[in-house]
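Lecture notes, unit on protein representations.

Consider one protein chain, 84 amino acids long.
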Amino acid sequence: MANHKSSLKRIRQTENRRLHNRFYARAMRSAVRSFRALTDKNEAESKLSEMYKTIDRVAKRGIIHRNKAANLKSKLAHFTAKLA
């Protein structure tokens, strides 16, 4: 266990940030999962920009890497294009 005041504060801050980041990461992953469950191309195309916004927001906050965000957006665009 930490003895210094600054270490105790750092532990508290780290835990709060971890929970905050976990919330946004889970929300993004759930949104991606629900998007991939879509079967209608028109609906997918209309929700694609919303998904981009969600992914970019998470990447901007540093929760996921910007390259991972780019890969996700690319895969979702490919998924949308393949829908019948």
